[in-house]
Amino acid sequence: MIRKRMAVLTVAGLAFALAGCTQQSSPTNSASSSSLLASSSSTKISENNLTPQQMVSVVTTYAGNKFGSDWATTAKQAKKEGLQVDLYPAGNYQLADRGQGVAYNVKATGKRSSLVYTVKDNDVIIYQNAEKSHAGKKLATVSRSEMVKFINDKGQGSFVNRLAQSAQVNDKRDSTSSVASSSSSNENGKYGNEGSVTVPTDMRGTWYTADDDSNGTITFGKNTFQYTGPDGTNGLMHLYKQGKLDEDTMMDQKVQTATKNWMRTDFHDYRSMHWIHMEGWCQSAGDGSYYAVHSETINGQQVKVLVQAGGAELWVANVWYQTKDLAHQNADRKFDDLHYPDDE
């Protein structure tokens, strides 16, 4: 069962929600007006409410303008052919800092590249020439807010939006990670498995909370879920639709072991919100956990948040944010339009 302080794992999503930090390494070169990827425009982007596709585009646009070379070439190719980022275990590369254990390999669609970045708390660590056989060259450590400011200052917002329109984020860890096994592969029809459940696009990525001093993160991928909390992390959880599964099968130890990284997943609409509902594959008691993307006004701006709830009335347990700073600034905050246990 997913609990408020569960030891489930962090994925990734996708999506790498970051706050401010100081750039730690010197870039190979700096952008000038003549080296920009695109002509300057008045389009501005916000560091809040970025989708995984937009976040990938932010990193690519920033690196292409800031460092040029292969990053610039890939960004320009991606504008024509589409942007693709594949997620691999960070151990697939020789990296100075593996971050949270996921390497994001950036390329133009259908091309091969050795451009990689990792995520660690508030930081994105950017590399070039990253391979299994030799160490990648670390270019910089930079926060999302710094990247967005740089992009807006250079008038590259339109380029970000153009890349994001066709960007694809693919989780490739199943085929290379030690997590991948018969217990986590999609075996349609086996043990009631009716195939992968697709997580809504606006929910994918990494979310942070500081409620109850938890300092946790969760990441939704296209068909996956991970959690990290004070008690540590667990393996990558795979989200599937569950068909008929009798009680005897659910109680079978062999089945429980084989499906330990599976979660039965469905969707519910309640209190004007669209919830993804997840439970252990062989869970026979409890309500599981529910997550829904919602919008709240924070510091005068509409900000996308992720609401976690449970129980018969879907009482709010935690609110998750796209940056660590927002999570700490709003720790244990209660919003008037959300339903809490003490509202009864």
Automatic annotation (TrEMBL):
Keywords: Signal. Residues 1-19 form the signal peptide. The keyword Signal applies. Residues 165-198 are annotated as: Disordered. Residues 176-185 have a biased composition (Low complexity). This is Lipoprotein. It comes from Limosilactobacillus coleohominis 101-4-CHN.
